[in-house]
């Protein structure tokens, strides 16, 4: 089955879909084309972001929210406490996690 990646520009609930404005998903091509015509979704325009952080690394959600998606990026940042949501304790936990 062919699929198409789309971004919802309107809430999909009224069409029996559990997606909200801003959600990006893969849909069957036929369904995606119909929703594009109805102006419920638009073809995905963004770049794919590869998140290469372990699921259990401390502060993972905050790091990703701030565009830090790899261990190499973490290692290139001298002070992680610059990110709102990462304090000295979490930064220490992250650094210790990376040493193990």
> What percent of residues adopt helix (DSSP H or I)?
25-40%
The Rg value, from CA coordinates, equals: 18 Å
Strand content: 5-15%
The major pleated sheet works out as: 3 strands, antiparallel
| SS summary, helix count | 4
> Strand order within the widest sheet?
2-1-3
Average pLDDT rating: 92
Q: SSE order, as H and E?
A: EEHEHHH
Shape: elongated
Query: Quick one: how many beta strands?
Result: 3
Distance between the termini: 43 Å
What is the number of domains?
A: 2
Which runs of at least 5 residues are low in confidence (pLDDT < 50)? none
Structural class: alpha+beta
Written overview of the protein:
The mean pLDDT is 92. Helix content is 32%, strand content 14%. A three-stranded antiparallel sheet has the order 2-1-3. It starts with a strand and ends with a helix. The protein has two domains: 41 residues; 40 residues, no CATH class. It is of the alpha+beta class.
């Amino acid at each position: 089955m062919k699929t198409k990646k789309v971004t919802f520009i309107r809430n999909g609930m009224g069409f029996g879909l559990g997606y909200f404005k801003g959600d990006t998903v893969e849909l069957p091509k036929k369904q995606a084309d119909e929703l594009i015509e109805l102006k419920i979704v638009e073809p995905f325009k963004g770049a794919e972001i590869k998140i290469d952080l372990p699921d259990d690394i401390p502060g993972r959600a905050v790091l990703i929210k701030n565009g830090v998606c790899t261990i190499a990026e973490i290692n290139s940042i001298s002070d992680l406490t610059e990110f709102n949501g990462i304090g000295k304790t979490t930064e220490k936990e992250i650094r210790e996690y990376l040493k193990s």
